[in-house]
Amino acid sequence: MALTVVSLMRSIVAGVVSEGDIVVDATVGNGHDTVFLAELVGERGKVYGFDVQDRAIRQTGERLKSLGLGKRVKLICRGHELMEHYIKEKVKAVVFNLGYLSGGRHEITTLSGTTLTAVKKSVELLLPGGIAAIAVYCGHSEGKEEESVLKEHLISLDASVYRCICVQTINQNNEPPVLLAVQKKK
Questions:
Q1: What are the Cα distances from residue 125, in Å, to 61, 128, 143, 164?
Q2: Which helix (H) or strand (E) holds 14?
Q3: Which domains does the chain have, with CATH numbers?
């Protein structure tokens, strides 16, 4: 395993998600995390995937269909801050890969206000033992703001109910990404 934020995030999520679970990809993007989650939950599980860009939803839908995973995933072209309107059950994991769509328009990014709202709602949706894992890309101004706002919120969570971690590369230049994760204790 490469020691990257995404590989660590996937390792953490794979450690808690089982076949048949319900999970959320809060930032579908190019669909890589959506595919990863669809494979984890198996045929009996379900993935909810959110993105504000039609292109991301369309491309991910095509990728899932080509891999035979389409029936496991409900793709929603809406902001992740609206997830409670679509998800009525408790979930085992929520994954955020913040920033902008790789290969897309860089001026369209996740925003600290809507991301904070989505993370708060994600934490409420977690089953005991469930986890929300958040890759924060700090190389642009909104990413720095997201990191600050999210850390401030996670620090405030009740330690008797939640365990929160922060992992970051310490010897990389150019604002390396940060992994934040919160687990609801059993």
A1: 24, 10, 24, 16
A2: helix 5-14
A3: 5-184 (3.40.50.150)
Please state, in angstroms and as integers, the Cα–Cα distance from residue 39 to each residue in 17, 48, 128, 137, following that order: 10, 13, 22, 25
Per-residue pLDDT tens over the stretch 136-160: 887 666 778 788 899 999 999 999 9
**C-alpha span between 186 and 183 (Å, rounded):** 9
d(CA 101, CA 28): 9
How far is residue 172's CA from residue 92's CA, in Å, rounded to a whole number? 32
Q: How many CB atoms lie within 10 A of CB 73?
A: 25
User: Position of tokens 């005991």?
Assistant: 128
What pTM did the predictor assign? Answer: 0.92
Q: How many CA atoms lie within 13 A of 34 on its CB side?
A: 30
Q: How far apart are the first and last CA of the chain?
A: 28
